[in-house]
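Take a specimen:
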Amino acid sequence: ATALQPGRQSETPSQKKKVPSFVTLKGYKSGTIDVKELKVAMRALGFEPRKEEMKKMISEMDKEGTGKISFNDFLAVMTQKMSEKDTKEEILKAFRLFDDDETGKISFKNLKRVANELGENLTDEELQEMIDEADRDGDGEVNEEEFLRMMRKTNLY
């Protein structure tokens, strides 16, 4: 692995947009940050990390047991986290296309409309099976959480 430094040409555009929050950290000069600084950086990037999540991340990245992580490790983890976040946003955009009546749920009617618009030849029974498979709380409709879960399970995103 090559050491990525701010300003080097080997960074991808998505990595470059993550660098500024790291640069603002006081530990940057040493090339490492501690747990507190990691939490600050994650919050600056729009994440609300839980204590358990932070501990797990640090233990995975801090192989030497110093309590600090390198810029490279930070960059790798945040690149992964940002791609997960982008994926969630894309899935929620798709959810909103189904939820044209803006109820916060996908009903049988919503699903049937989308299937017809896409030219899908699905029976009412098949459409209902799709709703039933995703519907975890048994209310007969699919909410955002259920939709996210189903889309991730199918590996479409």
Remarks:
- Strands lie at 32-34, 68-70, 105-106, 142-143.
- The helical segments are 13-16, 19-23, 35-44, 51-61, 71-98, 108-117, 124-134, 144-153.
